[in-house]
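does this look right to u?? 2'-O-acetyl adenosine-5-diphosphoribose version
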Amino acid sequence: MKQQRVVVLTGAGISAESGIRTFRDNDGLWENHRVEDVATPQGWAADPGLVWRFYQGRRRQLHEVAPNPAHLALAELQQGVEDFVLVTQNVDDLHERGGSEDVVHMHGRLETLRCEGSGRSEHRMEASDMGDEFLTCSCCMEPQRLRPDIVWFGEMPMQLERIYEAVEDCDVFIVVGSSGHVYPAAGLVLLARKCGARTVLVNADAPQNLDAFDEVHLGKAGELLPGLVSGWLSEGA
Ligand code: OAD
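got this back:
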């Protein structure tokens, strides 16, 4: 795999062993909220205080969790192959803290907040940024309210052009910890396959789009990935 172009797509399952709950293992509720209430532009318009407090809780949680062996293994894979792109659906920063560089966060990030006026994102993780009161931006003459820098349902994922380009050009496409329910992320494996890539899955159980994978490893990412990565890096090509 060393000389190949590798794209990895991760989902909530890779952070599960770090203590962050996945989305579809808990009755369709996100920390006791309905998805529509906390993860849509309509939810934000209807009750911004509720949505803000929900994401502030998730932002504070970042201080309580740490990368697990699966995050570290992907950082090692990045160092070992010539061409590597890591795309994540996760909004946590565990890939970066595990040593991965230039991570493409297609569903946004928790550490940044977005100005409702200009659309600009700013890094806001100081202690004074973590409370339940709304925050304002530092980019506008008249500071505007900040919103979570998250892609909600009904909004366009980020950096799609870059993602499609990398997937179309890759030799190996690896999915880790994703249920294959949310598009366009769930469709990337089909694109990779159509363009001739070998497709690999590492997941706790069979996802929605299982048939799209040439190679399937069922089990916990933190237990399986370190061994898989060592094996891939010792492959001849
Ligand atoms: P899901 O919660 O839908 O799926 C998580 C997947 O990880 C499931 O298939 C689990 O079996 C698997 N899993 C759980 N623990 C695991 C472990 N230790 N090792 C490996 N796999 C494990 O999460 P996503 O597919 O990431 O979008 O969900 C996609 C999107 O849906 C999220 O990005 C979010 C959500 O709505 C937005 O917020 C826009």
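The first strand starts at residue 5 and ends at 10. idk if thats expected tbh
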